[in-house]
Amino acid sequence: SPRSIKYLNADWTKNAYNFACYDKSVTEPNYKGIKALVRRFRPPGPSKNERTRLATLYSLNILDTLPEERFDRITMMVKIEFNVPLVFVSLVDLNRQWFKSKQWGCPLPAADETGRDV
Known about the structure:
Layout: E1 12-14, E2 20-22, H1 34-40, H2 50-59, H3 69-82, E3 86-92, E4 96-104, E5 113-115
């Protein structure tokens, strides 16, 4: 049976842009770096209450709305408190993951949404 994987502060390092990156040299010996971990990932299927969850999400009328300061304050607090470059508030509808708020500390532009399986 596979062992649970715990990420520790020692597992992370900084890249040339001063962003946190997974340090493959400290992974468990039976894994071959981050690629092996990614291969083990299986996107979750729909939940047992998927219809109710989606109906509730759509009733909030929050998808595809403008950014709101109250969400941005939360993501900024998390970014500062945990000293991480990326923080998101994401909402998952039928086919996508949409970001209501994001703190994006990367040199590339941030996406507003991704596929649900990402």
